[in-house]
Amino acid sequence: MKKCMLVLALLALAGCDTTVKKEETAGLNYGPKPTRWREEIKSYLDLRLPNAKEAVVEYRSEPKQLYQRDTVLRDSQYGWATCVWVNEKKDGKFAGPYPMTFFMRDDKIVAVNGGPDENSFVASRYAREQCAQLTP
Question: Within 13 Å of residue 46, how many CA atoms lie on the same side as its CB?
């Protein structure tokens, strides 16, 4: 039964079309490019990471306009997005880096994929794909 549920979940995930069409983004107001994005992300992580001062945070991209299409598993999001990789200590050792994508509008974080608030396969997949789009 568990195997059947896993197969169904993987098929549903594979069927999620994340390709963005131009008409979906027409008329969206991304606002001005954020100026305090590093400070906002640091503040966000400081509140959520158990040992934020010991975490290694790598900003892998400058903010770029990004649209996340609405799917069965995720709501649509848009804004100035940036890719961040975080490596935090757990039990005194670095656990290995993981990606996060932050969406911002008006210098405020409006959505996040990945990270301590949503440690799931789906969130990680979105963050990895979006980081690939955002980094050169």
Answer: 7
pTM for the structure as a whole:
0.81
Between CA 108 and CA 15 the distance in angstroms is 32
Cα–Cα distance for residue pair 119/51, rounded to 1 Å: 17
Structural contact between residues 134 and 81, judged by C-beta atoms closer than 8 angstroms: yes
d(CA 104, CA 106): 7
Query: Whose CA is closest to 107, among 28, 30, 36, 29?
Result: 36
pLDDT tens digit sequence for 93-108: 998 999 999 999 999 9
Strand 64-68 versus strand 77-87 pairing type: antiparallel
Q: Which helix (H) or strand (E) holds 129?
A: helix 121-134
Kindly state the greatest CA–CA separation across the chain.
Answer: 50
Q: Which of 125, 130, 118, 134 is nearest to 14 (CA)?
A: 125
Sign of CA dihedral 18, 81, 128, 4: negative
Domain limits of the chain?
Answer: 2-134
Write down the number of H helices and E strands in the chain.
4, 7
